[in-house]
Specification:
This protein is of the alpha+beta class. The protein contains twelve helices and four strands.
């Protein structure tokens, strides 16, 4: 992101002080605490963690408070802090089949092993303002069903048994780390998925919506959407085996997409995939749709010029921190640039008037 120019330090200090005052608001109102933000604005916290690439609810809550609720600014704060952390090692790939599931639904199969688990969702609410919340009273707490424990097989595995869906792509090579090396095109699928999961939710949602309206030639079903906690393990060289170092909450979405086949692939269903920190199901679904649209080349499909199929367009414009930096830098001083263009316009106008007078 662009940094501010030097100069005007007193004005800048005053601006910072004013910002702190605005952040606090009316001092007669109790100040927000980090636990309040973490527990009651959990979906905002989840988005900041997902697009900031750092799973830490407390730090995400702090960033939201410092940014006055501006989630993109909060994401910027988290990413900046993330760069200061030491890299101690690399965890093993998580196994989402062993997820302790809080929510698990499928739009393709009504009866599936493990069952449909609605979990906490807005899907069946009436979208009416609940003025009881304004009374600030303690609402009755419903009994929370325990998370589904033990292995929960993925729905797409049932299609895979009959050869109706492509095999899950497997590649044992070490994927590039987008947080440590710049994005280069063409990008393989692991790198694309990293970029999309860090990308702005609104942008990814728009790209996904475009594919549903025909700009991508994909018709998707949500094969499975699951939300829950998975264990994170790390191999310790001194011990010679892996140990569990914690757990993270994830949202995973697998879409089942129609595919008529190509010169290289038989008719079958194909896959789209999304994986995001926290309960972030809208982003996970959108991510899986965009992932599928970007796979047109490896599946031998024709490129129809849809924005969601354009790897460069999607990956270079989905990052909200880069986009914000380039957008907001134009409000910084550009006096010299503008004066030069102002003189150019004046000269061109004078030349045009001279030519017009000569013609008359």
């Amino acid at each position: 992101m662009y940094v501010a120019v030097k100069g005007g330090e007193r004005a800048i200090d005053n601006a910072h002080a004013w910002l702190a005052e605005e952040r606090r608001g009316d001092t007669a109102v109790a100040e927000l605490t980090l636990p309040q933000i973490r527990e009651q604005l959990k979906l905002a916290v989840n988005r900041v963690m997902a697009e900031g690439s750092l799973f830490d609810p407390d730090l995400a809550a702090l960033a939201i408070k410092q940014a006055r609720g501006d989630l993109i600014e909060a994401i910027f704060l988290i990413r900046a802090y993330r760069t200061t952390l030491p890299r101690l090692g690399t965890s093993l790939p998580v196994d989402t089949a062993d997820m302790a599931v809080d929510r698990r639904i499928s739009a393709t199969f009504k009866d599936l092993p493990g069952g449909q688990v609605l979990g906490p969702t807005f899907d069946y609410t009436h979208r009416l303002l609940d003025f009881a919340l304004a009374a600030e009273g303690e609402a009755p707490v419903a009994a929370k069903a325990p998370a589904t424990l033990g292995p929960v097989p993925h729905v797409t595995a049932f299609l895979n048994r009959d050869g109706l869906i492509e095999d899950a792509p497997r590649d044992d090579t070490q994927p590039a780390d987008l947080t440590r090396t710049p994005l280069e095109l063409p990008a393989d699928r692991p790198l694309r998925l990293q970029a999309i999961t860090r990308g702005d939710e609104g942008f990814i949602l728009s790209m996904a919506y475009s594919t549903q309206r025909g700009y991508g030639r994909t018709h998707a079903f949500v094969g499975e959407l699951r939300i829950g906690r998975v264990a994170v393990e790390m191999e310790i060289p001194e011990l010679g085996f892996a140990v569990e170092i914690g757990e993270v909450e994830l949202t995973e979405c697998e879409t089942v997409n129609q595919f008529k086949g190509s010169k290289t692939e038989p008719p079958q269903f194909t896959r789209g995939y999304g994986l995001v920190f926290g309960q972030t199901e809208r982003k996970a679904i959108a991510m899986s749709l965009v992932d599928r649209a970007l796979r047109w080349k490896e599946l031998g499909e024709d490129h129809i010029g849809a924005p969601a199929q354009d790897e460069e367009f999607v990956l270079y414009h989905c990052d909200n921190i880069q986009a914000t930096g380039f957008l907001e830098h134009i409000k910084l001083p550009h006096y010299v640039d503008f004066q030069s263009e102002l003189e150019l316009v004046r000269r061109l106008r004078a030349e045009a008037m001279t030519m017009q007078e000569a013609a008359e």
